[in-house]
């Protein structure tokens, strides 16, 4: 990702609540006089702040999400005083991992003295838990959307029946009115 001086650029990823996240950012050497600021937050109603750092060179953030929302990582390239704003850019290496991918399994293996096969089984179990959590969330969401759809269909059906009733009523009124009109004019 290349960052132009003075411009704020953001990247986002939707994540469910309670997901473990690891964000890594490394600013590659560039033209002198530039500093990169970094901020991580979500777009939930509470706007949870997960981290912020000024003058980032190499940063790693670890956190658990607090809401079902987009996690947004923003970078801003800031020029130091006495440097012209001539379209300078800065290159940033960025990586955002979530769920089992955010875990440091080598550290876990070393701390718990796990064999490689045990570590792989633990990684697979965590990945499976992530998939099951995602499926559960999708089932809940599908159920909510299905209920809303059924309520809307019921309202549309009621409105349609009401509209048909009004149209039939108006048609009967027109026939009776025209019959009476023509009888008064002695055309029938």
Work out the strand percent.
25-35%
Structural class: alpha+beta
In whole angstroms, how far apart are the ends?
85 Å
Globally, the shape reads elongated
- The chain-level mean pLDDT equals 86
Strand order of the largest sheet: 1-8-3-6
* Percent helix: 40-55%
Main sheet properties? 4 strands, antiparallel
Topology:
Layout: E1 2-4, E2 8-15, E3 20-27, E4 34-42, E5 49-53, E6 58-64, E7 69-79, E8 89-98, H1 105-112, H2 116-184
Antiparallel strand pairs: 1-8, 2-7, 3-6, 3-8, 4-5, 4-7
How would you characterize this protein structure?
The longest helix is centred in the C-terminal third of the chain and has 69 residues, at 116-184. With 188 residues, this protein is an alpha+beta fold. 41% of the residues lie in helices and 32% in strands. The strands form two sheets. Strands 1-8-3-6 form a four-stranded antiparallel β-sheet, with no helix packed on it.
Overview in brief:
With 188 residues, the protein is of the alpha+beta class. Helix content is 41%, strand content 32%.
Question: Main attributes?
Answer:
single chain, four-stranded antiparallel sheet, 188 residues, 32% strand, alpha+beta
């Amino acid at each position: 990702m290349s960052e132009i001086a003075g411009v704020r650029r953001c990247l986002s990823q939707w994540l469910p609540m309670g997901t473990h996240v690891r964000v890594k950012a490394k600013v590659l050497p560039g033209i002198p006089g530039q500093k990169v600021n970094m901020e991580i937050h979500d777009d939930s109603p509470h706007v949870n702040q997960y981290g912020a750092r000024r003058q980032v060179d190499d940063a790693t953030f670890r956190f658990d999400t607090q809401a079902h929302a987009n996690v947004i990582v923003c970078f801003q390239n800031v020029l130091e005083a006495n440097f012209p704003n001539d379209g300078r850019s800065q290159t940033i290496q960025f990586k955002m991992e979530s769920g089992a991918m955010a875990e440091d399994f080598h550290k876990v293996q070393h701390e718990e003295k796990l064999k490689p096969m045990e570590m792989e089984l633990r990684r697979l179990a965590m990945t499976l838990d992530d998939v099951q959590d995602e499926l559960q969330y999708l089932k809940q969401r599908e159920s909510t959307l299905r209920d809303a759809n059924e309520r809307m269909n019921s309202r549309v059906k009621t409105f349609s029946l009401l509209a048909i009733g009004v149209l039939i009523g108006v048609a009967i009124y027109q026939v009776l009115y025209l019959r009476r009109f023509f009888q008064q004019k002695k055309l029938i």
